Amino acid sequence: DANSMVEEFMLLANCSVAAATTAAFPKCAMLRRHPPPLPGAFESLKRSLGQHGFELDDASSLALGRSLDACAKPDDPYFNQLTRILATRAMQQARYFSSGAAPPSEYVHYGLACPIYTHFTSPIRRYSDQMVHRLLAAIIGWEPLSSDVLDARAMTDLTDNLNHRHTMAQYAGRASVGLHTLIFFRGKEVVEDAHVIKVRDNGVVVLVPRYGIEGVIFVCGAGERNPFAFDEAAETLRAPGCSLSTFDKVRVRIHVNTEKAHKPKLELSIVEPQLPARAG
Fold it and tell me: What is the pLDDT of residue 106?
């Protein structure tokens, strides 16, 4: 559709400008790279998908993309989206860097399958794009560059600061979402569909798609006997008449615990399937 076509042209523009600015300023071009996943990063997801009859091929970003496309269930439209969420979390973070700070072999953007990449198309909302526009303006003779832009060490300091600011903005965004989630659910008790996204020996992590929230649900407390047996190989909790595995759909109760007035906490508990009674 039209949106996809625009995205493809934006990707092409970013790749083309990255190549042009690096050719003109090999030591101080602003680029963005996405390192390949660390060895073993997808092993947990591979095991979980294998139990559903799917195989994840992470030999390359192209192979990964194709196998993710194939991980779909006609009777569960959210399965593919959840698979992509878990695959993305297994990857490393993309980062800005100066072209002189790494060899060309490390310029690659794994997620976009590009040998070289930068941010150029959104100068009204990203400072990195502003810097790239200045480099491109110098190439076409529009305006000269300041000495700081041509200083490789200064550019490295700048990209490090951009990465740090981006991380801090993510933390602030998550904190804001957490605060407003507490405000929204305060005084309410909601039962909603959720999906298991991680299994631990004493509980599971669930994601609630409708609200975009996730949380840990423990099946036993500290010092309590665990009614479940943890199958580490299958990443499954098993008890008589009940099991919990990654991708399982459950129903959860969501409410805010206000026992500590100074520190309200969002709590989730599984109501379906019915879990074994917890015992001391």
Answer: 95
Return the structure tokens found at 162: 């951009």
Contact criterion met (CB below 8 Å) for 250 and 270: yes
Annotate 142-192 with three-state secondary structure. CCCCCCCCCCHHHHHHHHHHHHHHHHHHHHHHHHHHHHHHHHHHCCCEEEE
Which structure tokens are listed for 64?
Answer: 């990964």
Nearest in space to 123 (alpha carbons), one of 143, 102, 137:
137
For the stretch 32-80, pLDDT in tens is 999 999 999 999 999 999 999 999 999 899 999 999 999 999 999 899 9
pLDDT band at 248 (very low <50, low <70, confident <90, very high): very high
194, 199, 200, 201 alpha-carbon torsion, rounded to 10°? 110
pLDDT in tens, 211-242: 999 999 998 888 888 889 999 888 899 998 89
Sheet with 265-272, edge to edge strand ranges? 213-218, 203-208, 189-200, 249-257, 265-272
Closest CA to 258 of 176, 182, 205, 207: 182
Residue 225 tokens read as 């006997």
147-174 confidence digits (pLDDT tens): 888 888 999 999 999 999 999 999 999 9
Which DSSP letter does residue 122 get?
Answer: -
Instruction: Determine the distance from the C-alpha atom of residue 172 to the mean position of all C-alpha atoms in its chain, rounded to a whole number.
Output: 16
Strand partners of residue 149:
none
- In angstroms, the CA 273 to CA 249 distance is 9
